[in-house]
Request: fold
Amino acid sequence: MEIVIAIAIGILAASGIWLILRPRSFQVIIGLSLLSYAINLFIFSMGGIKVGSPPLLDPAQKDLTVYADPVPQALVLTAIVIGFATTALFLVVLLASRGLTGGDHVDGREER
Amino acid sequence: MALEQSLLILLIVSPFVGSVVAAFLPATARNSEAIFAGFIALINLGIAIFLTPHVRDGGVLRLEASWIPLLGLDFVLRLDGFAWAFVCLISGIGLLVTIYARYYMSPQDPVPRFFSFLLGFMGAMLGVVISGNLIQIVFFWELTSLFSFLLIGYWHHSQSARTGARRALLTTGAGGLCLFAGMLVLGQIVGSYDLDVVLHSGDRIAESPLYPAALILILLGALTKSAQFPFHFWLPGAMSAPTPVSAYLHSATMVKAGVFLLARLWPAMAGHDLWFYILAPVGAITLLMGAALALFQQDLKGLLAYSTISHLGLITLLLALNSETAAVAAVFHILNHALFKASLFMAAGIIDHEAGTRDIRRLGGLARAMPITAALAMVAAAAMAGVPLMNGFLSKEMFFAETVATHVQGSFLDSLLPYVATLAGLFSVAYSLRLIDQVFFGPKATDLPKKPHDPVIWMLLPVGCLVLICLLVGLFPGLIIGDFLDTAVRGVLLGQSPYYSLAIWHGVNTALIMSVLAMIGGVVAYMALRTWLSGDFEGARMPGRLALRKRVERAQTALGRAWARSEVWLGLSHLQPQLRWIVCVAILTIAWPFLFRTWTIEPGGVEQPDTALLFVWLIGGACAIGAAYQAKYHRLAALIMTGGAGLAVCVTFAWLSAPDLALTQVLVEVVTTVLLLLGLRWLPKRKEDIREAADLRAKRRRAADAVIACLGGVGLAALSYAVMTAPTNPEGIARWLLTYAYSEGGGRNVVNVILVDFRGFDTLGEITVLGIVALSVYALLRRFRPALESVAAPTQKTFQDKYDSLRHERVANDRQIDAHYLLIPGLIMRLLFPLIAMMAMFLFLRGHDLPGGGFVAGLTFAVAFLLQYMAGGARWVEERLTILPTLWIGFGLLTALGVGAGAWIWDLPFLSTYFSYKELPVVGKIPVASALIFDYGVFTMVTGATVLILVALAHQAVRWQRMTGRGEKIALEEDR
Reply:
C-alpha cells in the first residue's frame, strides 16, 4: 500500500516539476496543479495511512489509535482550497500577461 | 496602570503618531507643521520633567508587557536617570530644532516630509534610550539609522545628499547588524535580554569566554554610529543634510547613540582590559585626528563635523578608562557637547542661509553685518575650545585630569594619554579660533551671493537658548547642572555616584597647566597657519591609505558589479532558471538526511499493495505523465488528464480514511477544471514557426530538466515512503485532538472540529487569503486587456452563429442562447439548482459530526451557480438571480470574525466556542455550537470567493464582444 502511494507521489511530483520548468505559462499552471496533488498527498501521508478508519468518532470505540491521523487531513483540506485560489490567481495573471505581451512565455517575452 | 507608566508609553508613541499625522498635513503648512512638531517635543519634555522625582537618586521606572516570553522577548520601557537626561536632550533640542527649521526651510521645500521624518527620528531615538530590552534597543537603533538616512537624503535631488545618506545608512546599518549579533551573544551569556538583569551581571559577563565576541560586535555597532575611527567617514558626508538635521542628528542625538550605548553598558561590560585596549586607542586616534582635520576644513559644516568626530572620540576615550570619575566626565561632556555643538550648527546654518555660502575662505568680517549671530557663535565656539567660564571648560578639565591619572599600570598607551589630550586640546582651540576669526572678523567679504544680515528673531532664539545654558553651566555649574548631572550619573552607575567636584577653580594642577598649554599653543598654531589656511586648497581628508571610505566604496562597486554579473551568469532574470534553482535546492534538502545522516528506509510490517488502488494509480500516473507530455500543444487534453490524476488523488483520499478530503478534492477538481476551461479561450494558438527541437540548446535543457524532475520525483517518493513506514508516535498531537474533539469541541468529525474550533484562527486566516485572492482576481480582470487575436469569437462559435442565422432568422446582436442548445442537459442543470443547494445545506449541517463542513458546502453551492451559468449563459442567469459574490465574501468574513470576537463578551479568548445539543421537532437533535456559525462564515466566504472568481472570468468573453462588437462581425464577414 505505502509503496503505491509513494510511487504515485513520485510520478505526480516528477510530472509537476518537469512542467513548471517549461517556458509556456499553461504548462506551468498544469505543473503547479500536479505538484500540488503530489504535495497534498505527501502531507497527507505524513500521518501514516490507514484504511477504513476515518477520524469520525464512534462512541463505542474507546481505542483512539485505530483512527487515522486528523492533523494532516485538516492541513490538506485548507491546502486544497487555497490551491484552487492560487491557481485562479495565477491563471488571471497569466491571461493579463498574455494580453499585455502578446505571448505566453513565462518571462513575458520570447527567448532570443 | 499607573500614571507614570502611561506617560512612558505616551513618550514613545507620540512622536510616531505625530510623524504619521505630520506626513498628511498640506505641503505648504510650514507654520502648523512646526507648531505641531514642536508641540510633540514639548509634550515629551514635559513628561520628562514630570517624571524627574522618579529617577532621581538612582530610581528606575519600568513598564513591562510580555510579547514572546518563551524567547525572553518582552516589551520593556525603562527610564532611569541617564535615559531621562537623554530624553531631556532629545526633546529639548528637538523643540529648538523645530522652531529653527520653520525659518530655515524655504517655501519650496516639502515640509511635511521633513517634519514627519524628524518626528519619526525623535521617536526612534527616544526608543533607543528608554528601551529596557536588548533586542528592543537594537530595533530602535536600526530605526534611527533608517530615519537618519531619510533625513540626510532629504534634498534627494542633490547627488551629494544621496551619496551621503547612502554612506551613512550602509555604515550605521551594518554596524547595527553587528550590534544585533552582539546583543544576542550578550543575552546568551546573561540568560536574559532584560537590561536590568544584564547591567547587574557584570562579573558573569566578564568571566564568560564569549565576552570578547560580544564586546567586539557591540563595539562595532557603537563605534560606527558614533563615527569613530576608522568608521568616521560617513559623518562629513552627512553634512549635505539640511542644517537643522545636522544640528539635531550630529550634535545631540544620532551620533550620541553610540556613546550612549557605551555608557549604558558600562556597568556590564567595562572594567575589562580588552575594553580599555580596544576603546582607548580608537578614542585617542579619533580625538586627535578629528581635531587636526577640523582645522583644515574649508566648509563651515565640515569643520563642525570633524570637531564632532573629535569630541565623540574624547567621550569614547573617557568611557574606555574604566574609572567611575571618567564616566562622570563622559556623561558631562555628552551634555556639554550637545549644547554647544547644536548651537554652532544652527549658527552655521544661519550664516549659510543669510550669506549664501559656507566656504570659510569666502566669508569674512560678518561681525558687523550680523552682530547677534556673531556674539552667539563666539560664546559657543569658546565653549567648544574649552575657554574658562564656559561649560566646555569644566568637562575638558575633568578629561585632562583623568588622562593624567594612571588607569592601567605600566601601559605605554596610558602614559601617552596626557600628551594626546593636550595636543588635541591645542587643535580644538585653533579650529575654534579660526572659525570665529575668519568668518566674523578680517576683511569684509565682498563677493557673497547674498547681502548678510541677522535673521529673524525666531531663528536666533534657539541658538540663544543653548548658548545661554552653556554660559550658565560654565558660570554656576553646581547650581545649574549639578542635580541634572548627578541624576544622569546615578543612572549610568546603577545608583552609585563617585566623588567629583564641579568647581570652576581647582587650584593650579596638572589639568590646568595642560589647559593653559593647549590654549597658548592653539593661538600660536593658528596665528602661524592663518594665511596658509585661507589659501587655495580643499578641505583635508584622511590620507589615502587610512581612508576606509574609499575602500568601502570600491568594495561596494565591486559587489554591485559582481552581483550584476552573477545575475546574468545564474540566469536570475528569467523564471525558468530561478525555478530550476529552487527545485534543485529543495531536492538537495531532501537528499541531505539520506546521504549524510544515518536515515535509511526500513520497510517494516508493510501491507501488501492493494490491487484496486494499484490500478487506480496506473491510470492516475499515466494521466499525470500524459498531461506533462501534452501541456504544450494540446491544452484541452492536458487539462482532461490533469483532472484524471486529480480523481485518482480523490479516490486515494476516500480509500485511506479521509472522506472530507475526498469530498473537497472532487469539488475543487470541478471548479478548477471549469476555471481553466474558461481561461483556455484567451491563450495563443500554436505557433508553427517556433524553433523546434532541432535546437541543440533546447534539447540539452530538456534533458537536464527531465533529470531534475526524475530526481525530484524519486526523492519525494523515497521521503514519503520512509515517513509512512516509520513507526508513528502514538502520543502525538493526534491523540490529544481525538481525545478532546468531542468533549471540548462538541463534534465527532475531528477534521472539522480542528478547522472550526481547535485551529479556528488558522481557518480564519485561510478564508481571508481566499477572499483576498478572489478580490485580486476580480480587480485584475476589471482592467483585463486580452490579446487582439483572441477578442474575436472562436471559429467554432462563429460557424455555429452563421448556421443559426441562416436557419432561424436570428436578430442581429441577440446574444441570448437559444432554447435548442443543450436542450435536455440544460433543463436538468436548471432543475438541479435547488437540489444541489439542498445538498450543500446537508453537507454543511452534518459537517461537525460527519464528513462535510463549510469548505465543502461552499464549493458545492458554488457548483450549483456554475451549472446555471453553463446551462443558460451569464445574461440568462443574471436576469433571474441576484448574485453579489463580493458581498458574500464580506459577509462571510465578518460573520467568522464576529463569532470569534463574540467570545470576548464572556471574557473568553478570541474564537472560544460554545456548544450543546438542542431538540427540534421533526428534525431531531441538532448541535448548536458557535462553531457552526463560524463554519457558516466559512461557507459564505468560500461560496462568494469561488463564484466571484469564476463569474469574473466568464464575463470577460461577454464583455469583450460587447465592448468591441466588431470582433464577431469581422470574423463573420471574413467567412463570407
About this structure: Confidence is low (pLDDT under 50) at residues 967-976 of chain B.
